[in-house]
Amino acid sequence: MSAGEPGSVVRRMLLGSQLRRLREARGITREQAGYSIRASESKISRMELGRVSFKTRDVEDLLTLYGITDEAERTALVNLAREANVAGWWHSYSDVLPSWFPTYVGLEGAASLIRTYEVQFVHGLLQTEAYARAVVRRGMKGASEADVEKRVELRLERQKYLVAENAPEFHVILDEAALRRPYGDRAVMREQLQHLIDMSERPNIRLQVMPFSFGGHSGESGAFTVLRFPESDLSDVVFIEQLTSALYLDKPEDVAQYEQALKELQQDSPGPSETRDLLRGLLQLS
To answer: How far is the C-alpha of 8 from the C-alpha of 1, rounded, in Å?
Structure first.
């Protein structure tokens, strides 16, 4: 899969949302749907959220239960199920990734708008190779050098999205702490600051820094990312990474709260040009 193409993760979400709409239109419960394919109610829920792969036989049986007899409609949805089961390019990195992260990589690669707030370090899509290596080494203590390099390679591969022909809009707010916390030596940090200045001038990237001087702000709950997709029937997804797991939120009320927090962060942080001035000041001090 080339950078920017919609991935299997989004196809699963699309198919799941269509199956949910068909089920609800017929007034069929998840429990009834599960019974028809010898599965639990929670399995139907995971299918409708795009969290699991689809067996074509299950999709065919559900379509029959939902009264979908039009051959063209059935074929389109069954084909979508087959495409949704194709492994993404990042599958080869799964041995060095936490179990929840491949889903995020698939979503990130299919998004048309990525909005994020980062506290601990520079966002992965904007890291230089040397800075990324320092971050990965810190986070994967005891890992072999080969595993560290593989994780760094994946991070650099993800960055190709930002410069692809159909690159997403990327709006990132970095807490000043992320810029002042050293990863690697002074040369690494200087290169990273210059890279941020350079990348912030790309037309699809909006970079802002939330300065210490502002005090308390709406990002107090920590780092998070909101992803939007070109497919109109897919809801925005909020991604929150934790120490041993991750949350994917797509309920409108949850997404709305995070979008409001992002809006306030954007309003309260210096604009992109002032941010570049701030970065140049840090570069001179480093």
So the answer is: 10
Q: Is residue 228 part of a domain?
A: yes
Read off the pLDDT of residues 134-157 as tens digits, 9 standing for 90 and up.
Answer: 999 999 999 999 999 999 999 999
- How many Å apart are CA 167 and CA 112, to the nearest integer? 7
Q: Let me know if residue 3 belongs to a domain.
A: no
- Token pair belonging to 273: 């040009």
Q: Is the dihedral of CA 139, 242, 107, 178 positive or negative?
A: negative
Please tell me whether residues 181 and 243 are part of one structural domain: yes
Domain with 192 in it: 89-285
Q: Beta strand pairing status for 113-118 and 169-175? A: parallel
Picking from 269, 124, 258, 271, the residue whose alpha carbon sits closest to that of residue 206 is 271
The DSSP string of 130-162 is HHHHHHHHHHTTT--HHHHHHHHHHHHHHHGGG
Fill in the amino acid letter for 236.
D
According to DSSP H, which parts of the chain are helical?
8-25, 30-36, 41-48, 56-65, 71-84, 101-110, 129-139, 145-159, 176-180, 186-200, 252-268, 272-285
Q: What's the mean pLDDT when you consider all of the chain?
A: 90
Q: What burial class does residue 210 get, using C-beta atoms within 10 Å of its C-beta: 0-12 exposed, 13-18 middle, 19+ buried?
A: buried
CATH assignment of the domain containing 174: 3.30.870
Residues 214 and 94 in one domain: yes
Q: pLDDT tens across 53-63, in order?
A: 899 999 999 99
Cα gap 203→211, rounded to integer Å: 23
